[in-house]
Amino acid sequence: MESQHNEDKSLNRRESYSAAIHYEDCTGAAFRIRKGISKTPLQISPQLSEITSMNLYFKKEYTLPTGSFKERGARNSLCLLSPEQCKLGVIAASAGNHALALAYHGKLLNIPVTVVMPTTAPLMKVTKCEMYGAHVIIHGQVLGEAKTFAKTIGHEKKLQYINGYNHPHILAGQGTAALEIIEQMESMAKEIDAVIVPVGGAGLIAGISVVIKHLLPEVQVIGVESEQCPSFSKSLEAGYPVEVTPKPSLADGLAVSKVGASAFATARNNVNMTVTVSEDDIALAILRLVEVEKAVLEGAGATGLAACLSGKLNHLKGKNVVVLLSGGNIDTTLLGRCLDRGLAADGRLVRLTVLVDDRPGGLKGFIDFLCKQGVSVKDIIHERTWLKGSIFNVEVECVVETRGRQHALDLKAAAMKKYGKNFVRWGRDESSNDDFRH
Question: 405 FRET partner, CA 20 to 30 A, in 29, 108, 296, 347?
Fold first, then answer.
């Protein structure tokens, strides 16, 4: 036992890992965390299955106490610490879910946890980490700065640094979700054709893929990234982990500039394909989950469904598809914006701009037109000053709510017919093209 602890300590003190994990690591993790992690539900979604023409089964990782799959790896990593390290404690850099998971299970296992969070970390998550008893340090504008500072503090205070997406014990813990998926699908007498996994640092897909390919090699493992940060796709193209520059995204939890070396080594030969999804795809997926599943997901957690809705996985139509809903920690202030973005992507919230006479009755005529079209006005703006045409015209920009995509198209056609050259624009596009996905 002592030699095992020494081996773990030596492994854990390395700042980077590049070796792949194996199936046995995941089964060991499943046994290790069985008393601290409850099985999450796996359920079919009849309505979304009909919409996508796939048999969609949702693995609801967001139902774990801290709201994400990160608890699996965190619990496994903490359980593998030596008695000496358990007294000293651990440290991590995270803006959200990894910090929450370590803080929560550190409290349950009586292990001191320090988390370094960038200044951009949501206040709600900072407060929750403190509530779980973690020592929270706010440092750095971005996660990379927080990570560097955390390693420095860890070295000085002999705290074990736990990488949230590349530590081998983290990867093995995440793989336990796949063991549950296989067992739960077998209990329903259902075969699995594909498993769809969100990808950021690649820790989750590494653990999932190594289990799936060991037990069910014919099952497709598909990774989904945001178009704003395709670090895993670029790494696969290069053959080694490469760094990309993340752009702001609704899926902020996937905005990892460079995938973990160990995660990449594990996943690269086990993943069948990767796809990227747009911001509109993600927003629409969040909307669908709220409306149909009555589930509130963060952007990163909804990317699997976003891929199914995007039309990029049409080869899975008619197949049994398991989608990881990986996290539900979305800021309440962001949720409203996501839903509006989803409504716009769905053609249920549209914007149109027309020129009307700046005389009594001009605006009333436009409102009467909208009323006849059966739309609900959500916002309206007049512009008189910054126009190049007649001084007797006013530009009216209006945001309206429709029943759906076809109703929106009918509205556009009617507006073009009625206002002709005075129909200025549709949506964001100056050229009056459709501003929502077909």
Answer: 296
Average pLDDT over residues 399-426: 90
Among candidate residues 72, 60, 39, 109, the one with its CA nearest the CA of residue 302: 60
User: What ranges in 202-313 are assigned the alpha helix state H?
Assistant: 203-215, 231-238, 261-267, 279-288, 303-310
> Distance of CA 74 to CAs 4, 15, 92, 159, 198, Å?
19, 17, 11, 15, 18
The CA-atom distances, in angstroms, between 248 and each of 32, 125, 285, 340, 403 are 37, 19, 18, 17, 30
Q: Taking the CA atoms of the chain, what radius of gyration do you get in angstroms?
A: 25
pLDDT band at 16 (very low <50, low <70, confident <90, very high): low
Q: Rounded to whole angstroms, how far apart are CA atoms 367 and 331?
A: 36
Task: Give yes or no for a contact between 181 and 42, defined as CB atoms under 8 angstroms apart.
Answer: yes
pLDDT digits (tens, 9 = 90+) for 381-392: 988 777 777 778
* Phi then psi dihedrals of residue 197, to 5 deg: -130, 130
The angle formed by the CA atoms of residues 290, 352 and 279, to the nearest 5 degrees, is 40
Rounded Cα gap, residues 57 and 35, in angstroms: 25
- Indicate the DSSP class of residue 107: H
Name the residue type at position 338. Answer: C
Element (H, E) at 405: helix 405-419
Give the Cα-Cα-Cα angle 47, 48, 53 (nearest 5 degrees): 105
Q: Specify the DSSP class assigned to residue 297.
A: -
Across all residues in the chain, what is the average pLDDT? Answer: 91
Which residues make Cβ contacts (< 8 Å) with residue 50, sequence separation at least 6? none
Please tell me the distance from the alpha carbon of residue 344 to that of residue 284, in angstroms, as a whole number: 8
Query: 289 and 297 in contact (C-beta within 8 Å)?
Result: yes
CA distances from residue 291 to 251, 316, 342 in whole angstroms, order as listed: 19, 23, 11
The pTM of the full predicted model, rounded to 2 decimals, is 0.87
Over the stretch 138-159, which tens digit does the pLDDT of each residue have? Answer: 999 878 889 999 999 999 999 9
**Contact indicator for 195, 212 with CB cutoff of 8 Å:** yes
Sort residue 311 into left (φ over 0), alpha (ψ -120 to 50) or beta.
Answer: left
Q: How far apart are CA 71 and CA 96, in angstroms?
A: 12
The dihedral formed by the CA atoms of 422, 425, 430 and 431, expressed in degrees to the nearest 10: -80
Mode of pairing for the β-strands spanning 393-401 and 349-357? antiparallel
186 vs 71: CA distance, rounded Å = 24
